Amino acid sequence: MTYLIHALISFASSIGFGIITNIPRRTLLPAGITGAASWLVYVALTAATHAVILPNLLAGVTIGVLANLFAIRVKAPVNVMYIPSLVSLVPGAIIYMSMKDFTLGREAAAQQGLTKTLTIAIALAVGFVIAEASFNALRRLARRRAN
């Protein structure tokens, strides 16, 4: 039941952010599905490993693969689906608390939070790169077989 709630809320947040950022209507549902799937991957791996890098990395790969597949299906740029799908994974609360700690003079806590934020951002970016590279290689292979 908990995973269903997670999926519904992340689906709604991805669609809501898509509406706010004015993405085309035909891409809202795929962006919501991609956001929900990536969040479920993140939640499941976080519960299993209690790590930071692996859940974010694999959630980034999930976004990359699904967004590429949906972009082909709805004939839209893949970036249109990346942005709303990523909204649930952005470490906004961590960076906020780090800035708060920094302004209150707690440099050690601020440094720890900033390091965690950068780690998450890098893991997500590497996940996107892995997905893009894999998807491009598969696309080239499919085109060769089609010809």
Please tell me about this protein's structure.
The protein contains 6 helices and no strands. With 147 residues, the chain is mostly helical. α1 crosses α2 (28-49) and α2 (28-49) packs across α4 (78-86). The chain is globular and about 65 Å long. The mean pLDDT is 91.
Overall form: globular
Beta-strand share of residues: under 5%
Question: Which structural class do you get from the secondary structure elements?
Answer: mainly alpha
Oligomer: single chain
Helicity range of the residues?
Answer: over 70%
* Regions with little confidence, pLDDT below 50 for 5+ residues: none
H/E series: HHHHHH
- β-strand number: 0
**How many strands, which pairing sense, and closed or not: the largest β-sheet?**
none
* Count, helices: 6
Distance between the termini: 47 Å
Radius of gyration: 17 Å
Overall pLDDT, averaged? 91
Topology (elements, then pairings):
Blueprint: H1 2-20, H2 28-49, H3 53-74, H4 78-86, H5 92-103, H6 107-146
Helix pairs in contact: 1-2, 1-4, 2-3, 2-4, 3-4, 3-6, 5-6
TL;DR of this structure?
The protein has 147 residues and is mostly helical. 84% of the residues lie in helices and 0% in strands.
